[in-house]
Design brief:
- This protein is an alpha/beta fold.
- Helices cover 27% and strands 25% of the residues.
- The strands form seven sheets. A four-stranded mixed β-sheet has the order 2-5-6-7.
- The longest helix has 22 residues, at 78-99.
């Protein structure tokens, strides 16, 4: 057997993050790489995801190199920045290659973006450096998989094309026999066989790095709706609720918000952008109607910012210009306090162990005493209406 390690050169999109300590140092990598390392039976470390990109605006990303945020790189033009990031990625690969017998490397995006080919260290340069046997994977659930594979094979770097050993059709639904004669025709055109068809797996419980998680289909009882705005982040934080058997929905529809027993505004990488989207879609009205009906509302991180009266951005970090904007004004009292124990009947029923609670006072988070889960029966009961005091603060638990 091999000692195996996973390496992802770069991640982009709405990527969740994992945190770990390596040699006493706190680093940050993509959650997928974190779980892949655990599955391989090795300790996660920052070399497994040497470059992580976390979008903060339409044309700006937070750059994490070897687990550490590098703010000075955020303003470097993309084409000038790529060679700098490639050095870190190449060093990480060489170090891992010296320590492990087998490395599984995951690229990002497409190796056939011809407008970016000269600077594609994520796929092309990494494939060349490693001389790896490559697989091209296509998401057949999106449609056009055979065209994507054929076009990518034709447009990719000529050397890397010779390293391609097979095609993989991922997230397939239905009878695989219906794929014929597609794989055979594709092999006739490219000389590359289709080596695997991977079925769609729902409710797998793993974080979705680049997409909104699927809603729970079969659960009944308490309905928790997470408002999945375009810049929502860390949506995998809510997976424990699904595993506890609660009905969990991720939605951008007013009708779903109106049917929610509990409504959650999650974290956001661009709170001002999500605020503008809420208003443009009319969902700000749906949020206020939920509060007016006396039903629980929770804001987390950027979502909590949207529940106040004003959002100040004096340096223009989340918009093209600095300024202040009025937000949803669902939290009017600056002295209001809410503790996690107030939500015990539902939120903490998803776990049967102690949890650290937090409270919001004057918009500063302070740890409170440990709280214990309520009986499991509480998870299926409708929560009691929140008082004005409870409604006026969010949770950062």
């Amino acid at each position: 057997p091999f000692t195996t390690i996973w390496l992802r050169v770069s991640a982009s999109g709405l990527s969740s993050t994992g945190f770990m300590r390596t040699s006493g140092v706190l680093g940050e990598i993509g959650s997928a790489q974190y779980f892949q390392a655990l599955a391989a039976g090795v300790t996660p470390e920052v070399r497994m995801n040497p470059v992580l990109l976390k979008p903060e605006a339409e044309t700006r990303s937070q750059i994490v190199v070897n687990g550490t945020v590098r703010p000075e790189l955020a303003d470097v033009p993309w084409r000038e920045r790529s060679p700098l990031l490639w050095r870190a990625a190449a060093d990480a690969y060489r170090g891992l290659a010296a320590d492990y017998e087998l490395i599984v490397i995951e690229g990002a995006g497409s190796p056939a973006e011809i407008n970016l080919a000269a600077d594609d260290y994520v796929n092309t340069s990494t494939a060349k450096l490693s001389a790896a046997a490559c697989l091209l994977v296509s998401d057949i659930d999106r449609g056009g998989a055979f065209a994507h594979l054929y076009g990518t094979h034709r447009l990719m770097d000529a050397q890397v094309r010779t390293q391609v050993r097979g095609f993989v059709l991922n997230r397939f639904r239905g009878d695989a026999a219906l794929l014929a004669p597609g794989p055979a025709d594709l092999q006739a055109l490219t000389g590359v066989p289709t080596v695997a068809v991977i079925p769609m797996i729902a409710d797998h419980g793993l974080p979705e790095e680049d997409a909104v998680p699927a809603s729970t289909q079969r659960a009944v009882g308490l309905h928790i709706v997470v408002l999945a705005a375009p810049c929502a982040s860390n949506l995998d934080e809510f997976e424990p609720l699904r595993r506890a058997g609660l009905r969990l929905s991720f939605s951008r529809e007013a009708a779903t918000v109106a049917a929610a027993d509990w409504l959650v505004l999650p974290g956001s990488k661009q709170a001002r952008v999500d605020l503008a989207w809420l208003r443009a879609t009319g969902l700000d009205v749906a949020v206020r109607a939920h509060v007016a009906a006396g039903r629980p509302l929770i804001g987390i991180c950027g979502g909590l910012q949207l529940l106040g009266e004003r959002l100040d951005d004096p340096h223009g970090l989340e918009a093209s210009k600095a300024g202040s904007v009025r937000v949803l004004a669902c939290c009017r009292s600056r002295r209001a306090t809410a503790t996690a124990s107030a939500w015990r009947a539902c939120w903490c029923a998803s776990a049967r162990s102690a949890r650290r609670g937090r409270r919001c006072r004057r918009w500063r988070s302070k740890a409170t005493r440990s709280i214990w889960a309520a009986p499991a029966a509480a998870a299926s009961s409708r929560p009691r209406p929140m008082t004005r005091r409870m409604r006026s603060a969010g949770s950062e638990a």
